[in-house]
């Protein structure tokens, strides 16, 4: 079986190189692009694999690249790389149909897992996944205050900002956040946001 192909789009040469090395070592075939416009120019049918793109880039950013890929009829699964504080952008990308997002700096294992999952699902973002239905059931166990904290977390709020909005201390927000994580069994914020978006709660 031919190795899965990953198209990596990032304007940072060091980032492209390190991701390429990691993916190459893991047995992927890798193509590198320094800008979304170059990817759009070079993608010709039949296209295979998946796209790993940074969300913040000069010129054509990850969101706009995603929109143009879809309007050009490309249905490749897309995983977004985001920086700290880009959760609202990642949420928007997933609402548009991106498979997943991964927050920098990320570990190799987390990246490989996101890509394998995206390749398995193809261009679909997993709405029929049984674990998603399980997540929805767990969401229903949240108290009203826990739901409010979840909503603000998905919107990219920090503990300080959420505390201000809900008129509670940042420490109390942290306690509610821990309860939300425990009840939903999300491994990290990225997983929590991903499931909340897929479940239509964001």
From TrEMBL:
Pfam families reported in the protein's UniProt record: GerE, Response_reg
InterPro entries (alphabetical): CheY-like_superfamily, Sig_transdc_resp-reg_C-effctor, Sig_transdc_resp-reg_receiver, Tscrpt_reg_LuxR_C, WH-like_DNA-bd_sf
DNA-binding in keyword set: yes
SUPFAM superfamilies referenced in this protein's UniProt entry, alphabetically: C-terminal effector domain of the bipartite response regulators, CheY-like
Limits of the HTH luxR-type domain: 135-200
Domain Response regulatory: 5-119
Record's keyword terms, sorted: DNA-binding, Phosphoprotein, Transcription, Transcription regulation
Residue numbers carrying 4-aspartylphosphate: 54
The protein, known as: Response regulator FixJ
Organism: Methylorubrum rhodesianum
